[in-house]
Amino acid sequence: MSGLGGAVKIYVPRDAAALSVGAERTAQAIVTQAQRRGVAVELIRNGSRGLLWLEPLVEVEVEGTRMAYGPVRSEDVAGLFEAGFTSGRAHPLGHGVTEQIPYFKRQERLTFARVGLTDPRSLADYVAHGGYRGLRAALALKPAEIVAAVTASGLRGRGGAAFPAGIKWKTVLGAEASQKYVVCNADEGDSGTFSDRMLMEGDPFVLIEGMTIAGLATGATRGYIYLRWEYPQAKLALEAAIGAAYAANYLGPNIQGSGQAFDLEVRMGAGAYICGEETSLLESLEGKRGQVRFKPPLPAIQGLFGKPTVINNVITFASVPIILDRGAEYYQHFGMGRSRGTLPMQLAGNIKHGGLVEIAFGMTLRELMEDFGGGSLSGRPIRAVQVGGPLGAYLPESQFDTPLDYEAFAAVKGMLGHGGIVVFDDTVDMAAQARYAMEFCAIESCGKCTPCRIGSIRGVEVIDRLIAGEQAAKQETILRDLCETLTYGSLCALGGLTPYPVLSALNHFPEDFVKPVRASSASG
Amino acid sequence: MSSQSPRRVIPIKAEPPSNLSAAERSAVLEACARLKELPGALLPILHAVQEALQFVPKDAVPLIARELNLSVAEVHGVVSFYHYFRHSRPGRHVVHLCRAEACQALGAPALEAHAKSSLKIEFHGTTADGAISLEPVYCLGNCALGPSLMIDEELHGRVTADRFDALVSQSRERA
Ligand SMILES: Cc1cc2nc3c(=O)[nH]c(=O)nc-3n(C[C@H](O)[C@H](O)[C@H](O)COP(=O)(O)O)c2cc1C
Ligand code: SF4
Ligand code: FES
């Protein structure tokens, strides 16, 4: 497709990460320079391609092919026009054809197929790129057949716990109730993760489509997206897309003339990590304190307002349309063992090429960090990696060959969680990381269990005494006991898994907890 | 804690005593009137109040409780549970500085120390000129481009100490 009346199509992301490094100023500079030079430009604000170290990544469409330039700061724009970037000419910031950049080319983009490619505010663009084909397929099926397709695909929840999505949906389908709900967990609290955000900002319609299919599959007619307040750009993108979907009868009382109804709205969180836990999230949606509920009853039986509720992560829902469109076998053939399909991994922290990498399960952590990530940003050796968010273990170099697979990570007492990989170089102080893990638990505890609420505060004090060298052996024993109490005395994973980062730091990096070593490394 | 009875509050609709200004009071009542029919209305109402007033005044709590037929303790319990809701008026701009792991890996602790010493405040504090409040935040979803912070609703990545100073002085110049 060529631009409006011969105008050059230029893409500048409106993704929050791109904006954080100046994409708005870059976009304005492109408009100003184009006017000054009399070049007709059609500016499209896409999502991010996920090559975040190149943001703001500007793409120019030349004879149907998109050429990448980045990172483009506003002050680079005049030079790019001089060099003829509007016809795809060479420039020191040029990277050639976007989709041929190895970081991109080596990925298997299923869930993220359209992110960065399309205009996230345009329903027409979504449909032109395969959008709503999954819904069309679902409308021709019975609810139980939709559930069977999701089950057969092997899709497991991408929010962290990796529970099979089809089984959850089947329970909701089987529950009798006057009202059922579909709730999307868009609380994305784990440090090192941003795939939900990128998807909501870059392709909000696919989430809406996935949730609508979940509604059809289970007989739920009302949906909520529970979005963390820290994501204002995602809120704008979702609200625009929901408005467009209503206007075109993709949401509302009569979806595409099928006689089936589905209503959807966005609700904002208010800064509580625990509200990512599903029952706490439901309490919060009901307007209460986000305290974790006892299970049973499962949310699938008694969820929001006591009604049967499908609750899934953003990426889980967003993976459903392609399963309905291409078939369960297509999705299922990606991956290894019981981890089927693809997982959008997020490379974060001290990494040279940070960004989003959607690949089939099975690649090793080392391949991901080196081949994609390009090593540390500082250029120093990578010493520790935290996988799976603040409750994930710190892995030492000896475990970098673990394959990205739910079971393989469980075998090294780690977890893949939501796919966040946070890289630390050799200047990291692992005792400080262990202390932070306890502190985070204390700050974010919902307060229901004593070990989590009080034990975490004690944990911080014990680590402080341990690293100060006050009766170190005794403190270590107390710390290990405390971790055991947390593991067995907590209702949810916040208290229950905080021992993972704490003990992995202590077990793999004991030298950081010994006073003299700390003193000398702190001055270095 | 929660009772079985559906009626949780004595149905007296008297105006609770308060020090709210007329403008604050009408902002609170407007938010309640507009949103109270929503299922689970309390969080949307608190967001609307904070958006209008930059914080949730203590004396707004009894008013919201009355409008929603909840107890003051319930509303207070919710306001105090969530880190985002503020109980006092912030500075003209709020800086949310990320303290989480991915930003730590790129020097967030040093940036935090710089922020506190250059602004001469601790977390939850407001500068003497009333321009800037400093709040901690646990991940802004910008973990590949840290250290990160958000000023009001504007996200910034790769923030150095110099960049921090520049951002703060730009904010000071804005109203
Ligand atoms: C402390 C805690 C925080 C969590 N945070 C999130 C989150 O931010 N996003 C998410 O999708 N799931 C989160 N979860 C997992 C949810 O409880 C739940 O498993 C998930 O929403 C189910 O969706 P899924 O099956 O699609 O993953 C969290 C769990 C715990 C214990
Ligand atoms: S472990 Fe902590 S966060 Fe989880 S339910 Fe218990 S007190 Fe709440
Ligand atoms: S850890 Fe700071 S933005 Fe995610």
Helix and strand layout, with pairings?
The complex is a heterodimer of chains A (524) and B (175).
Chain A: E1 8-11, H1 16-20, H2 23-37, E2 41-44, E3 58-62, E4 65-69, H3 77-83, E5 94-97, H4 102-105, H5 123-128, H6 133-139, H7 143-153, H8 165-174, E6 181-186, H9 195-202, H10 204-218, E7 222-227, H11 232-247, E8 263-268, H12 278-285, E9 309-313, H13 314-326, H14 328-332, E10 335-336, E11 339-340, E12 342-349, E13 355-360, H15 365-372, E14 382-387, E15 394-396, H16 406-411, E16 420-425, H17 430-444, H18 450-467, H19 472-489, H20 493-497, H21 499-508, H22 515-523
Chain B: H1 22-35, H2 42-53, H3 60-68, H4 72-81, E1 93-98, H5 101-104, H6 108-119, E2 132-137, E3 149-151, E4 154-156, H7 161-173
Helix pairs in contact in B: 1-2, 1-3, 3-4
Flavin mononucleotide is lined by residues 157-161, 163, 185, 187-189, 274, 276-278, 311-313, 316, 492-494 of chain A.
Detailed description of the structure:
The complex is a heterodimer of chains A (524) and B (175). With 524 residues, chain A is of the alpha/beta class. Chain A has 4 domains: 4-105, Glutaredoxin, CATH 3.40.30.10; 123-332, Rossmann fold (3-Layer(aba) Sandwich); 335-425, Ubiquitin-like (UB roll) (Roll), CATH 3.10.20; 430-521, NADH-ubiquinone oxidoreductase 51kDa subunit, iron-sulphur binding domain (de novo design (two linked rop proteins), Up-down Bundle). Helices cover 42% and strands 15% of the residues of chain A. Chain A has helices spanning 16-20, 23-37, 77-83, 102-105, 123-128, 133-139, 143-153, 165-174, 195-202, 204-218, 232-247, 278-285, 314-326, 328-332, 365-372, 406-411, 430-444, 450-467, 472-489, 493-497, 499-508, 515-523; strands at residues 8-11, 41-44, 58-62, 65-69, 94-97, 181-186, 222-227, 263-268, 309-313, 335-336, 339-340, 342-349, 355-360, 382-387, 394-396, 420-425. In chain A, the strands form 4 sheets. In chain A, strands 2-1-3-4-5 form a 5-stranded mixed sheet, with helices on one face. In chain A, strand 12 and strand 13 (355-360) form a beta hairpin. In chain A, helix 7 runs antiparallel to helix 8, helix 9 packs across helix 11 and helix 10 (204-218) crosses helix 13. The termini of chain A are far apart. In chain A, 57% of the residues are buried. The termini of chain B are far apart. In chain B, strands 2-1-3-4 form a 4-stranded mixed sheet. Chain B is elongated and about 55 Å long. Chain B has 2 domains: 22-81, no CATH class; 93-173, Glutaredoxin (3-Layer(aba) Sandwich), CATH 3.40.30.10. The mean pLDDT of chain B is 93. Helix content of chain B is 42%, strand content 10%. Chain B has 7 helices and 4 strands; from the N terminus they run ααααβααβββα. Chain B has 175 residues and is α+β, with helices and mostly antiparallel strands. Classes of the chains: A alpha/beta (524), B alpha+beta (175). The interface between A and B is large, with 60 and 43 residues. The structure holds flavin mononucleotide, iron/sulfur cluster and FE2/S2 (inorganic) cluster.
